[in-house]
């Protein structure tokens, strides 16, 4: 390596701890699970600070229903291609890049990602799931006791099947349901409901105009400023960069931290202010494609929401009849795209104003931050309890909701415990009137997403 280039790389490496220190909070859906539970960095099996809202000792858990996002994964083939394209440009310019240490150092960075990795589960993702299983079993020992039946389902994606198998391994030999990942039931109708919703696919997924706010932000002043800064650091004409290439450089910073627990040289291109802009770009996409942007995003998840309550209902009926609970543990592994619409359907993380290309500054304190809601290994858990010695019969069955292992207050009460009756009353309209087939039917006439949604 030439002395000047070596010096440039050394300067870049010295800057890395500072560069990464303020960025990891802004990685959106590519965030490590440790970002929402920092105590796990030092102790991966810690249950964390004791939260309030505990139930009386006379309450016994009957059923746990968990919807998980898969663990840490590799980039998709498309992201790897874009990174390769950007890296190739830097390699072509490296020969004359003595005056451009950042570009020279990144040209020296080994491009180790291969397209065959295409979104597959990383070793860290297996650890995410194994450790989550162990913490869940420690938190609910009565439900995870020996010989309790575990119903394990997954999306058909390899990363989800492997995450399900890793979750099971994390539980060790206490549950007797043996076998390998083929025994994880594939259930795309619940874990990938969005693929089966024609209205969503046609009017949102495959409709470029539906992402109008995302595309407008890519061309807006905030992104333009980031583009110019990155182009200057890499000594590239700004015309050679676009928002997608800059975003893939930022995501590489996030992937290296999540997958390898290292600070990538790509992180040095971005300040915390840049990271906030790029996080907002990611959140805009999540908002308009998976969140509150269009009603069909969340309404398409009512099939999963109703299935959760059908199993809770069955557990209540079995308990009232003094029968054993046939499904005490139901764990399903899906995607950020599974959890985000479900949480929107339930009304969580909704801001007063929609996320728009033009209100970046006003949304600085927004609730809708995807990295805080659906990082890798995100989990939404419903726990149904039977309680003795209650004042009224409707208090006999109670529910708690946990998001990423923290109690989530119910919207109808702002309490962390609800009677099952009150919870069903609050969501009665969704439970009775949201019909997947009807919601997802395509309109008979041609309309744009904006008209129909």
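Q: What amino acid sequence fits the structure above?
A:
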């Amino acid at each position: 390596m030439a002395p000047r280039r070596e010096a440039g790389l050394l300067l870049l490496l010295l800057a890395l701890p500072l560069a990464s220190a303020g960025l990891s909070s802004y990685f959106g859906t590519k965030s490590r699970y440790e970002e929402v539970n920092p105590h796990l960095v030092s102790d991966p099996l810690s249950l964390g600070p004791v939260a309030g809202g505990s139930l009386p000792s006379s309450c016994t858990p009957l059923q746990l229903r968990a919807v998980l996002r898969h663990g840490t994964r590799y980039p998709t083939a498309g992201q790897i291609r874009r990174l390769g394209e950007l890296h190739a440009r830097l390699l072509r310019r490296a020969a004359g890049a003595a005056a451009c240490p950042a570009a020279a150092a990144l040209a020296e960075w080994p491009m180790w990602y291969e397209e065959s990795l295409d979104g597959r589960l990383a070793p860290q993702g297996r650890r995410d799931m194994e450790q989550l299983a162990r913490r869940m079993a420690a938190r609910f020992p009565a439900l995870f006791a020996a010989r309790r039946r575990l119903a394990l389902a997954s999306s058909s994606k390899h990363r989800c099947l492997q995450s399900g198998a890793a979750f099971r391994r994390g539980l060790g030999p206490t549950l007797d349901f043996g076998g390998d990942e083929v025994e994880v039931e594939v259930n795309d109708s619940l874990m990938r409901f969005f693929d089966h919703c024609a209205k969503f696919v046609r009017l949102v997924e495959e409709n470029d105009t539906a992402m109008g706010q995302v595309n407008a932000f890519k061309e807006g002043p905030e992104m333009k400023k980031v583009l110019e800064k990155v182009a200057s650091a890499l000594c590239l004409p700004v015309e050679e960069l676009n928002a997608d290439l800059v975003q893939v450089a930022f995501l590489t910073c996030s992937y290296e931290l999540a997958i390898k627990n290292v600070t990538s040289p790509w992180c040095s291109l971005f300040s915390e202010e840049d990271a906030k802009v790029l996080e907002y770009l990611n959140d805009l996409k999540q908002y308009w494609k998976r969140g509150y942007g269009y009603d069909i995003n969340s309404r398409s998840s009512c099939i999963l929401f109703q299935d959760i309550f059908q199993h809770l209902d069955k557990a209540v009926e079995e308990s009232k009849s003094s029968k054993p609970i046939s499904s005490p543990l139901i764990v399903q592994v899906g995607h950020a795209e599974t959890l985000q619409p479900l949480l929107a359907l339930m009304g969580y993380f909704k801001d007063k104003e929609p996320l728009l290309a033009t209100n970046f500054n006003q949304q600085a304190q927004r609730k809708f931050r995807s990295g805080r809601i659906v990082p890798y290994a995100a989990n939404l858990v419903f726990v149904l309890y039977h309680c003795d010695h209650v004042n009224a019969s409707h208090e006999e069955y109670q529910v708690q909701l946990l998001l990423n292992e923290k109690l989530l207050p119910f919207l109808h009460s702002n309490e962390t415990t609800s009677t099952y009756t009150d919870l069903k009353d609050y969501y009665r309209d969704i439970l009775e009137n949201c019909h997947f087939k009807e919601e997802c039917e395509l309109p008979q006439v041609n309309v744009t997403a904006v008209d129909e949604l």
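Q: And what stands out in the fold?
A: The two ends are 57 Å apart (CA to CA).
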